[in-house]
Records
---
Amino acid sequence: MKILITGAAGFIGSHMAEYLALKDYDVYGIDNLSNYYDVNLKQHNVESIADAGVKFIKADLRFPEQYQDLGRDFDFIIHFAAQPGLSKDSTFQSYVDNNVLVTYQLIQFAKHQKQLKHFFNISTSSVYGKYATVSENVAPQPISTYGITKLAAEQMVLSESRQQNIKASSLRLYSVFGPRERPDKLFTKLIECALNDKKFPLYEGSLKHQRSYTYVGDIVKGIYNALKVHNALDGEIINLGHFEKHSTQEGVLNVEKILKKHIQIKNLPPRSGDQQETQAIIDKAKLLLNYQPKTSFREGIKQQIEWYKSQNKIMV
Ligand SMILES: NC(=O)c1ccc[n+]([C@@H]2O[C@H](COP(=O)([O-])OP(=O)(O)OC[C@H]3O[C@@H](n4cnc5c(N)ncnc54)[C@H](O)[C@@H]3O)[C@@H](O)[C@H]2O)c1
């Protein structure tokens, strides 16, 4: 089975690529190593996935000519590549280009794959908006350019399924954390601040925000389960996350306790587009994918701390 994974140098895509390669799938990883965050971290991920047997291609998915040489015999595409996050430094155009245009171009590529069995679009709970506490049949109401463009990408993919051009589904992930978490995200920032005595930048009001923090290994297993039952998934949208929610404050306290360090806070104004609460309703994932996230909040944080310490030489 030949699988194309986009965004394979990134946080979640690299774990997925590695997992499937170690299960003896023929995995091709594609990524443009965008400079949204430290490219050294992505290079390091590329080395890890190559060690696991993934064939890595550096290419920018906005430009069709850059991946035409990949061939026409992929069985599956798992699409992680995106402009993620809510950074004020990310332009409107970068979200449109890397979430909407990239997905459009990838769909054109997918339509030429003679034996494509399924296109998995990786979506996000951000499409739901301020409160992502609902099931898949509730209309999304995104409040950020990130959420809006990810919803557009999702609908583009599902529209091809509705027209029976490709078989496809969309998996909406919830606050993924664990080893290789992006440096702009909560736990990597907390751990970095605690270990280096830096002040943690706290957006006003965010201590009370609640999230379905989901360990990356549990996300990878959920997507793998989806791959196994792809025949039953055409046209589906499925929430993939941990059913428990935790506040940012609990995150801070857990990192402090595990590292036995006090984290100092630097207060920032509220962040535009931030969600108030997410809690994954995963009845559908349980039913269709036999999905059951297993890693606890505390255990996941411990794993991430271990990873951070082991990689500390390359963190800047
Ligand atoms: N991290 C989370 O908590 C989370 C939650 C929900 C959904 N998601 C989704 O999961 C996916 C992966 O997120 P992540 O956190 O691993 O982010 P990431 O930034 O680490 O990975 C995305 C990768 O896509 C690549 N990319 C971006 N534009 C590209 C382009 N034009 N051509 C080729 N490659 C390109 C980047 O270089 C990066 O390596 C995204 O689609 C994101 O929306 C993430």
---
Amino acid sequence: MRTFDGLDFYDLDVFLTEEEKLIRKTVREFVEKEVIPIIEDYNEKAKFPSQLIPKMAELGLLGAQLKGYGCAGLGANAYGLIMQELERGDSGLRSFVSVQGALVMYPILTFGSEEQKEKWLPLLQQGKAIGCFGLTEPDFGSYPSGMRTAAKKDGSSYILNGTKMWITNGSVADVCVIWAKTDEGIRGFLVEKGTSGVKTSDIKGKISLRASVTSEISLTDVKIPAKNILPKSEGLKSALMCLNQARYGISWGALGAAMACYHIALEYAKERIQFEKPIASFQLVQQKLAWMVQEITKAQLLAWRLGKLKDEGKIKPHQVSLAKKNNVWMALEVARMARDMLGANGTAYEYHVGRHMCNLEAVKTYEGTHDIHTLIVGEAVTGIPAYR
Ligand SMILES: Cc1cc2nc3c(=O)[nH]c(=O)nc-3n(C[C@H](O)[C@H](O)[C@H](O)COP(=O)(O)OP(=O)(O)OC[C@H]3O[C@@H](n4cnc5c(N)ncnc54)[C@H](O)[C@@H]3O)c2cc1C
């Protein structure tokens, strides 16, 4: 099969700097060499390839968009290209890097004390510590402000009780950013590994993001020193700020999964012979490929423009919602189409498209479901919230 070289139907590379292209090339090579040969096996065994963490840290991929404490301080589009290339390998791998950088390092940098930043950011950036972000609960996903997890002040400590569900890296994390209700509203807390009263168990039997750890975290009378509260976190707004960072990365990441599926389907269609001709010569097959090119190109433009708005400090949450929802929907449709074009082979792990397709089902749901992002865009254009 021809080596993957992306898709650039509208010559969008002219918008990228030499540094951005170099970063893309570096991560693409890493994924080609270190991820693609092993990922199907890890996916089948439902294991996260943790040996890749030090390598990704060495490449500066963890918290690459942040400034200070050893982070690379990259621009939004360079960071987006990292997400794209990682998700070309696997959505679970991209999820790991998203959670670490956007949902753990970002809140510590933005809402944390100097002591918290100095303690955690270098370790997280070097991959020597793993983080997780606990917002979702068994009964509260799309409606996080209903959360039951509570933190009660007790002298110089807080006592946390509650359950967090579907938490990426929950059981392997050295530090969890746990969102809990206090008398002053929702706040973020740093719960460290080994704290008494914290129990984790992994969610088994997932059809999606199998090469990623997803856990339940239960907190029973967990005593946290007051210095572990994120002092500048203020209400659910702070948690949503973190989610917006991660959603931005997902809008790029989805492009990677889509481009992988497009590439595999195109190469397959040129080689697969039916009715004495390559299936790529049939109009219905070409229609599918043309649709993929059309939608990937539109999604690339959305992501690139969003990155520019982010760097200019003009990005709005509803713009992030539009890109997350469109690009993940597009990627899922491309993956489903690719799976179909590969016929029975599309259902086999070794052809990758089935794994991408299953992964994208979870990506469509997490970080705000497709429908919740539709409501965010709907509210932005009408001024009328329609969540209830
Ligand atoms: C693999 C994986 C990893 C995850 N990692 C994390 C993590 O690290 N940290 C974390 O905190 N969470 C994580 N999540 C949880 C994820 O963010 C939630 O699953 C998501 O927010 C949706 O919540 P829910 O599953 O409870 O669905 P629900 O909120 O119950 O939604 C079910 C359906 O109802 C629809 N719906 C809900 N409300 C409305 C409404 N007002 N109008 C119209 N439709 C509505 C939704 O769109 C959806 O289709 C993860 C999930 C998965 C699958």
---
Amino acid sequence: MEYVVETTNLTKVFGNFTAVDKLNIKIKPGEIYGFLGPNGAGKTTAIRMLCGVLEPTDGSGKILGYDLVQETEKIKSRIGYMSQKFSLYDDLSVLENLNFYASVYGLPRVKREARIRELVAMAGLTGREKEPVGNLSGGWKQRLALGCAIIARPSLVFLDEPTSGVSPTGRRVFFNIIQGLARQGTTIMVTTHFMDEAERCHKIAFISAGKLIAVDTPDNLKRNALEGFLVELELPSAMDKIKDIESLPYVKECSIHGPLLHVLLKEERNLYDLQRTLGVKPRPIIPSLEDVFISFVKGSKEGEKNA
Ligand SMILES: Nc1ncnc2c1ncn2[C@@H]1O[C@H](COP(=O)(O)OP(=O)(O)OP(=O)(O)O)[C@@H](O)[C@H]1O
Ligand SMILES: [Mg+2]
């Protein structure tokens, strides 16, 4: 199978609102596929369709070779899905949660004990098996939720914002686990709002207002996605100057990054125009993923205004 996920014009309409608009995506086996986009972009809606839990309004797709509309039961039993509000039972223990999901996913009884021990270790919960899940803090809960989602060793896993509300260390540990799974051949589609996590994906798809705007590797996106020349500069009360800077004819975009302004110029030579206008020296910089995403979001908003 060349692609584990392949969709053609996948669309979801709620009433007269199009949440996912003609989505075409292809995911290869073993890929960590990052799904990024602003709040309300349609990420969760798209993932729910890919998991076979939400019927598309239009379009089609194959998941692990199964038809997304006709074969949802086959899909559901073969994938792992960790939803945005991951569904652990707080008053059950670590072990009870894992046992529950083992039966949900139909893991044969003889395989349970060893598999559960393995996942308890993966979650860093060895010795805490009897503790109620409600006592666990964010990072542990999240790793346990991942353990529940992959208990039957699915070859394809969907993770919807698995690391929201988790500390930076916890997030890093979690992504190490994800990378380990991918190395063993598991395909992972993961949504995130964190750029350091996006960096660790093999491919990133960016969606805004239901539409796919770009798909590429993090490196290619940084190299190619911004058209223009990016500089940073320091100005007193920078926040108040964004609008003025953006109205300069040779400026495409201006955004704030901590204490600094990032300005996307039309061309390299505009650096001198900017320097003359502002009286400070801008420094050329290599775009970060954050720059790329800010630009995507701005670009798609402009597109909506002009539509
Ligand atoms: N069942 C529903 N009925 C009506 N509108 C819905 C429904 N589910 C989602 N939406 C709308 O569809 C849009 C996309 O929502 P979705 O949850 O897919 O976005 P998201 O990209 O996952 O956002 P976030 O980053 O906040 O999780 C939103 O405007 C949302 O309000
Ligand atoms: Mg969501």
